[in-house]
Amino acid sequence: MGTDDQANRISVSERIYEGLEAVRQSGLTNMLDRPAVARIANELGFYETAEWVNDNREKYARGVFKGFEIERDSDERV
After folding, report:
1. CA–CA gap between residue 36 and residue 46 (Å, rounded)
2. To the nearest whole number, what is the mean pLDDT of the chain?
3. Residues 31, 71: Cα–Cα separation, whole Å
4. pTM for this model (two decimals)
């Protein structure tokens, strides 16, 4: 994957990313089904992820197609 693809990824906190990965790996829904993703994240105990998915519909949709990445701390930025 090129740097252009990586630049377009949606940055989320590590906890949000973990919740999205847990839902994806569960195989319980298609990740395009945003309401189901939020519901399953909630059921799996990733409450912050469920809230983020519901509150950030556009970012979530872009992330499904462009990818998600864990946001770096400001100390890590160059």
Report:
1. 13
2. 91
3. 20
4. 0.85
